[in-house]
Design goal:
By secondary structure, this protein is of the alpha+beta class. It is built from five helices and three strands. It starts with a helix and ends in a 67-residue tail after the last strand.
Length: about 180
């Protein structure tokens, strides 16, 4: 098994593991460029791909990658799907769920500068809320930051152990 006993125990208890620099900088730059090319229209998105825009950003007449907040369902894009097939990622996924690995939901989330309305933040949530399939212990997400992140530009927060609790009602916070 790829995971040490300590890593496996940490994963079981907390619901995540952190593997730094798993995806090469060259690959990250390739995915960023593909996102820019799709966002600008230089490359046509596949028919199954959904491109989402922040309404507040669109009203400010932003174009290209600054107007796009998400590419969803990119499984038919040959460049972006390389991420889902990356051996360095799959070996960790397989060490958790076994050999039967499928890409069920693919998203590239972009965090353009907020236009002052708080519309670029996403409320806390449990991913499992959005997935109609089970068993939960066979669902794993792989998340890779494609730029330096912090609380100012929308970093990912994890509540350790929340994967073992009930699913909570999902709402947007009062502060936007």
């Amino acid at each position: 098994n790829l995971l040490s006993l300590e890593q496996r125990k940490f994963y079981e208890e907390n619901g995540y593991i952190l593997v730094r620099k798993l995806v090469s900088e060259a690959d990250i730059q390739k995915y960023i460029q593909r996102f820019v090319d799709i966002s600008s229209g230089k490359v046509e998105r596949t028919p199954t791909m959904l491109m989402m825009r922040d309404v507040a950003v669109v009203k400010k007449k932003e174009m290209g990658e600054n107007a796009i907040t998400k590419l969803q369902d990119w499984k038919d894009d040959p460049v972006l799907f390389e991420y889902a097939k990356a051996p360095e990622i799959l070996k960790y996924v397989r060490s958790i769920v076994g050999e039967d690995v499928r890409s069920m939901h693919s998203m590239l989330i972009n965090k353009p500068p907020d236009v002052g309305l708080g519309s670029s933040s996403h409320p806390p949530h449990q991913d499992l809320w959005y997935f109609p399939f089970r068993p939960a212990d066979k669902i794993v997400a792989s998340w890779t930051a494609m730029q330096k992140i912090d609380s100012e530009n929308g970093c990912l927060f994890v509540v350790p152990g929340s994967h073992k609790s009930e699913l909570f009602k999902h709402t947007y916070p009062d502060d936007g």
